[in-house]
Amino acid sequence: MKAHFSTAVRSLVQLAALSGLALGLSGPAHAVDGCKVLLCMAGNWKNISQCEPTVRQALRDVARGHVWPTCSMGGNSETGNQLVAPVQCPEQYRTTITFDASDSSRVTEYICPFSGVIHVAVDGQPWTRTWWAPSGDSVVEWLPAAKSAFASSPDSMDDKFDRDHAAWVISEQIRRASDLAEAAAAAVAAQGGGG
Question: Residue 32 belongs to what domain range?
């Protein structure tokens, strides 16, 4: 019976992920249902009215120091929370500040708007990473298995993470080109040329 139930839950996770449908499961008012969180985070939970409050509550709870909810019926699918050091932050969201320390050395500090990342696996395959902040802000990084599963309906995924990354790549190319142009101009000026 347990193996059959686990297979059924796994099938439900796949169904929720592939179709983008929310299951009308409701957990207790005092705690977040880890199985509902797993099902929701396997899909585009921000656009599923039954999922959005549940996932936001789980994110608020973990920001307050509570453990991430678990689901014993997930079979080969799971979620897990990990705190993030600023240097681990996705590059498009990470900022750096460089300053002079009291000993005249240069110090670089990394700043990340996210405090943690929720890893979701479906059928043993990494599926999504949801980068979250205690403020409730979050962004979902869809991994190759999920992108492949949603290939026929890409609108089912929120592509903010990928759009932000593409914009960051362009801005970095512009910044590097500007740095090269400034260095070339300085080299010309140092050689006494320029006109």
Answer: 2-158
